[in-house]
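Researcher: Before we compare anything, I want clean individual predictions. No alignment, no superposition, just each chain on its own. First chain goes here; please echo the sequence and then give the structure tokens.
Model: Echoing the first chain and its structure:
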Amino acid sequence: MKDPYLYEGTNVLKNLLDIHDEQKLDSVESGYAIINIDALKNSDFELKSIFDVFTIHKIIFEDIYEWAGNPRTIDIFKGESILDGRSIDYVFSSYINQAILDLDKEFKSVNWDSLNNEEKIQKICYFVSEFWHIHPFREGNTRTSSLMLYFLIKKAGLHVNLNFLQKNGKYFRNALVLSCLYSSSKPELLLGIVKDSVSIKNVSSKKYETIDGYEVDKYSYTNHTIEKIKTIEKPSDWKK
């Protein structure tokens, strides 16, 4: 099966700049994303619905990809080094809209003013983790989830140390991975780093050099693939 998002015979995503070199595309994409993320953080954008995350993705990547802000149309997999090469089972492409709708209903039922700070952080981590597990985009899901986290924290009336989160970005991503393992999930790892990111106390980054015995510096980004690889067993209601 061919991946319609790639230039034929390559692992390079089709892009508006027609760049065919993977390293060059990664560099240019990162440059645009940093500028657009900074502009979005300094705008009056508010997260009023989980569907607003599609707008976040569009703003970040619209200079690079025609499909920015649109859900993926294929099923994807990605071997995770922290999982010995296995992949999280992301939602099937045919179920993305329904999964987002279900999550949005939960989101809109939350009365943030009735929650204490601990409860707010738990809710924030839940929504970010569930959204990341859906993985609605062909690429750019973690950066989008990071901004989702930022706007959820603002919505909850809390403050976040973004420099701390960015410095420990590899830990954050692997915490998302480990929060999506069904019966083996470890949500406390994501909860811990988010708690520290909203704390006024200085936290040593040495605390985040390893996660569940895995050295985070060993993580290096690899693209998603449409080829089936070893996966985490999915529950019966993970619909197709």
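Researcher: Okay. Second chain, same rules.
Model: Second chain and its structure:
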Amino acid sequence: MIERIFGLTERGTNVRTELTAGVTTFLAMAYIVVVNPAILSSTGMPVAAVAAATCLIAGLASIMMGLTANLPLALAPGMGLNAYFAFTVVKGMGVPWQIALGCVFLSGVAFLVLTLIGVRALIVKAIPRPLLHAVAAGVGLFIAFIGLKDAGIVINDPATTVALGKLTSPTAAITVAGLLLIAALQAWKVQGAILIGVMVSAVAGIALGLGAPAGPYDPTAIAATAFKLDVGGAMSIGGGLGWTLLEIVFVFLFVDLFDNVGTLVAVTSKAGLTDEHGHIPRLNRVLLTDSCATIAGSLAGTSTVVSYIESAAGVAAGGRTGLTAVTVGVLFLLTLFLAPFVQAIPTAAAAPALILVGAMMMSGLGRIDWNNPAVAIPAFLTVVTIPLTFSIANGLAFGIVSFAALKLFTGKAVKSDWLLYLLAILFILRFIYVAQI
């Protein structure tokens, strides 16, 4: 039955290899069970509920991906988008987390519709690839900055805006030690380095009295966030279908779309699963699964779900079929029973993971042509404005507007760029709108 479903022989693999690859991928991305609740809890969402939702959705989405697309691709709530959800939408815009979940739901529906009618390919073609890499790096800096701030390593300063905190404080000291531990483990190519570092740091933090007491064991903790989304409230943001709602949904949609495309290309190429033209097999099934997972995630109580680049770890271990993804999903579902205890993990343990994940997101900068001002300037503006304005949307806006303007001013604009210019005009109108409120 397994052979018939996954075609192991055809792809030159076996059950043992696929199971091993699944465990490898799970260990590489299991940190999300700790980090996602640490970020979303800043909105007032219960830690145990978010942890349970994270495990449940990551499990079901990965299993669905394995069974429908037969690719070794695992899914979970996305890093970067969870930060945007928490720090920009909820804390920055003052949107209640229930309404923010409604926005996630709407973005999932929009992504589903765009996939079904084929607009996805049009959007993918319109956005310059350098900006895709720049957004990923900017989000990485954003996440790392949040981790440094949570750890007390970076603090507010009225004279210089930011300054170095007291590294001798328990939280900062444990974060620094955790950073060194994870970095060393990664240098030694230890699978699950981030998870191991988080757990060791958590033990140290709890021993120093930094963590909250673990809640009573109750796998139904997810009830605190499940079906609490407010779609009606989301539809009424900014007076109903206003700029604010469009901006939130667009960022969720945009980052989700390109995060998946980038991950798909990287993972399927590494696995040798693309055809002679570089096309990804069952692409529509992959995108449909992702959009359905995002919708389900909003219902369960977590931010946008995306394909994880950590899936490449499983591919490196020999994973070639959906059985790898199914294995990851089953392990996440088993982890669901430990979710209520995540609230005992102190900030000092999660902060190193945020910082190191941010560092790993810098790799795309090497693919940008920094010798070409028409590319380098928009890319730089994208990277730097995301963390400094605490907004992914602002980074996207600066990048797309400047890229389009430089193409126009250098006489390189062509008719096929019409969608890029349409997006640039919309972002300019957004700047005007924001300046008036």
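Researcher: What stands out in the second chain?
Model: The mean pLDDT is 86. Additionally, The chain has one domain: 2-436.
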